[in-house]
Amino acid sequence: MSFLKWRFFNGALLLGIAVAMPGVINAQTPMSEIPLAGGGGGGAQMMSGGALLDGDQGSGGISSTGPEAAAFDGTSVWIATQFNNSVTRIRASDGVVTGTFAVGQRPVALLYAASAVWVANYLDNTVTKLSPSTGAILGTYAVGDGPGGLASDGTNIWVANRNGNNVTKLSAKGATLGTFAVGRRPMGLAFAANSIFVACNRSNSVTRLSTSGAVLGTYPAGKGPFGVAVQGTSVWVTNFWDKSVTKLRASDGLNLGTFTVGDGAAGIAFDGTNMWIVNHGNDSLVKVSPSSGTVVATYLTGNGPFSVVVGGGQVWVSNFASSSVSKTAAN
Predict the structure, then answer these.
(1) What are phi and psi of 268, to 5 degrees?
(2) What would the pLDDT profile of 4-20 be if each residue is shown by its tens digit?
(3) Whether 109 contacts 125, CB under 8 Å
(4) Regarding beta strands 28-30 and 295-300, do their DSSP bridges make them parallel or antiparallel, or are they unpaired?
(5) From CA 163, how far away is CA 200, in angstroms rounded?
(6) What pTM was estimated for this model as a whole?
(7) For the structural domain made of 64-329, what CATH number should be given?
(8) Torsion sign over Cα 124, 38, 322, 72
(9) Distance between alpha carbon 219 and the CA centroid of its chain, in Å?
(10) Among 55, 69, 90, 266, which lies 20 to 30 A Cα-Cα from 203?
(11) 28-30 and 265-270 strand pairing
(12) What angle do CA 133, 137, 139 make, to 5 degrees?
């Protein structure tokens, strides 16, 4: 290895340093990159050490706007730029930025559900509901401590409260329907088998909740489970510190395999055929076969990617350290 590249993590997410080792997977195909307004272009502040830190560390020295989360509303891709306390809307058909809208402090998670865009504001302990067409705020709702993950069960909105070690269930109108304990530092969530699966980053496990909030099971994962995605009858969980992804059977949590993907496995999405996973430490996006768990293609992203979403025939990646969004054709 010719060098070590330290990457800054913001406190709203995981806060740590990843070692980037370019080229450790297979040959990388460059992606198109769309710059976002307000970024300094110089990436994130460099730090030393490798400890996983809790709590917000402030944005001092950060030259990036911190694009972190991504969502698709059927027409546009939404990106949360946390250090601007805003979300940006990008037209999927041509990649043109069509609006930037103020939300709460440190937006770190996004979801399109119930005909609205939902934003988790980590420092405000709130969720903002936006109109997809105008960006207007339709409501702001109090949740738990450090909201940082969002999912829908088809009717209600579920919020992972990273500092509270619990999840909050909201109605589509924003009413609180309950708050339920899970493992330590819940991050990603997904709905499958009539249950909510929660990646508990500091418990190295996945908690399964019924739609009424009862714990149905706790399943081992790798180190630092992060993102969750559903593929048919399976639930996939990225393991940030293990450079891997775990495939669970949704019906009972049985481990169907753990597969190597890349350094700092973070966001994950399913396009109907393949799994897509971003590797924060490798500055890469990998396409994975759901049947074998093997990496079938690797793409070069911007600096420090965190989230991935599929929409408009494209795969979109938010690049935390370079104030940009990368995209490539879903194929």
Answers:
(1) -145, 145
(2) 333 333 333 333 323 33
(3) no
(4) parallel
(5) 11
(6) 0.88
(7) 2.130.10.10
(8) positive
(9) 20
(10) 69
(11) unpaired
(12) 125
